[in-house]
Every structure is written in structure tokens, then in C-alpha cells.
Amino acid sequence: VDVAVVIYSVANVSCSVSLVLVNKLVFAAGFKFPMTLTCIHFAFTVVFYRLLAIFRFYEPATNFLGTEAFKMAAAGVGSIGFMNISLNLNSVGFYQLSKLAIVPCTLVAQALLFNVHVSRKVKLSLGVLLVGLYIATVSDVELNAPGLTLGVLAVLTTTIFQIWQGSKQKEYELSATQLQAAVAFWQAMQSLAACLALENLCVNLPAVSNLGSECRTPLAFISNPSNSGSLVLVMVTCLIALGTNFSSFGLIGRTSPITFQVVGHAKTCLVLAGGFALFPIRDLELLRKNVYGVSIAMAGCVLYGHLKMCESSQRRDILDRMCPALLLPLLSPPKYEALAQSPDMEIASDDQSEPAQKLRGTPAETARLALRRSAAEPLQSGGTTEGHTIRERDV
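RE: above sequence
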């Protein structure tokens, strides 16, 4: 087990949940300016990393500047902005559905752009996870043309940003700290432009029409001495956001965008489960639906983690052990499929004291016998299947 991955995962879940809760307190206190809050977070990140660089805690990146940093920052700011506006224009159900769409969108993008594919077993575990979250979180799906457009943009920008978080670290050989510090300045500038245009002009936009006829701006709120308590909470969110961003860059850099999404969905399940315990739902039908959904989703998360660990260590997983032999060629690596397609194969034991046994008959019988024989041994590397070398039958 990679200890760093575990630390990044725990830190990301803890910081993300804390950030959501504290942001709700900030908004409840009257600071209802999400883009301005985002801009403050990025500005705090810039100052923090500049101080770290001055005191030589890390070496700033010199090969990731200009256009590349600007593009990556634009994807990150667009992801946050489009998601927030999509939530305002669409129903909560459609918003949750768009978050679920990030996983399949990331799979497609990785396959088309980077020729990176995941196994069928991993796709199965992701399907279980998404079905569970759909049952638990998606109730009403109402949308309109502008909301649908912004929802699609939110999914695309989020997918691109998360893929770049991993690929740029490897391409430019950067650490999570160097990459985040390199894009933080441009993220602060871009989010500043967005908050000035959307939240500091007295224009009655549809997304903020619920604020009333009074013109309310972040500058007016900050300049009011009675709001000093809310500003303290804003500074607390800056520290938590810094931890959230750092753990996100670190987790994606060491794993993949898909793993990051699974961790995020596990966080959603934990938040829902905590809500059940702290705020019991009186509607039994709704409670039953949520419990079923969260249970299925958590099973998908656990299965995903189990499959990834078995793949990395080349061990048999639970599907290898429990699935019928005839189904394994549909879920297992290509070596099973090759075995099922060729009747002229024999299994030569690695143990020289055991005579080789030839497999004859139909492809299905060949695969069934070989897989039943191999089930008794763990997977080995170097072209073997369950401890036995597969070779062409001598003619």
C-alpha cells in the first residue's frame, strides 16, 4: 500500500468535507459570493507558496510557465465557475447527474487523447458505484437549454483539468507543490476577472435574482464592520481550500483522475451517511432509497480499490475467485480470452515433477478446464497464468 496515497486520500476527504461545511456557514452569514470566495482562496494560495519559495521550502518550477499554466488555470477556474452556475440554473438532480458524468467522460478522454484504458473489471466497479450514487442522489432532473449548455461545459472543463493535473506533473516532472504554485497565480487572476464581472456589478442576473432588488457586492460586505465574524470564517476557508487543492494535486499525480473521482464519490457517500445519522429522514421510502444507493455506491468504491490493488500486485481478485469460469474471459485480462479462443493449447506445469496435461476439445471446454486448474494458484508474472506457462502444443 502506498502510504502517500492513503495520506492524500484521507486529507482530501477531510478537507473537502470541512470546506463544504465551512462554506455553508460563510454563505449563511451573508457572504453569498462564490466566485469572490474562490478568488480569495487562490490569492491566499499564491501568497502562501511565494512565502514557501522565499524560505526555500520548495524550488519553483521554471519549465511550466506562460501558455501552459494559463490554459490549465482556465480549465480549473472554468470547472468551478460552470459547476456553480449550473447548480443555480438547473435542478439539484441534474447537478448531481453532471458530477456522475465526469467518470465516463474521463474514461473516454483518456482513451482518445492518451490511449489509456482500464480493465473491464474496473469499469464494472465504476458502474456499480455510479448506479448507487444515482439511486441515492438523483431525484428530480429538470433542465433548460442554457443550463444544459453550462452543465456540459462544467463536465468537460472538470475532466480536462483533472487529467492535466496528472499528465502535466509527469510530462514536466513536477511535484504537486510546484504544479499548484505555477497555476495559482493565473487562477487568481482569472477568478478575479470572473467575480468582478459577475458579482461586483449591479446587474440583476437570473442566477442571483433571489438576492432581492438591493445591489449587494463583496466590497460592500467586506467594508461593513459588522461582518468581521464572517470574514474570519472566510480566512478559515482559505486554509482548508489550500489543503484541499494540495491533496487533490498530490492524489491525482500519484494515482489517476479516475481514482480521484472514486475518492470524491466515497466522500459523497460518507457525507450522506453522516447526514442520515445526524439528521434522520422521516420519509421512510426516501430513507430506504438513500440507504440502498449509498450501500451500492460504497460497495463499488471498495471493489474498485480491491481491483486496483490486485492489478498492481498481480494477484487474483475476488472476481477471479467467485465468478464462473465461463464468465472470466469476459472480465479477465486478454490471456484468458486467448486461451478460450485456441483449442490447441497445453498447460505445462512450472513444477517439473508434475507432467504436462494437454487440453483438447472445444474452446469453451479448453478455457473452463484451464481456468479451473489455474484457480488453485496465485497469478504470477512473466507470461504465466495462475502459476502455469501456456504454450502452443508441440506438433
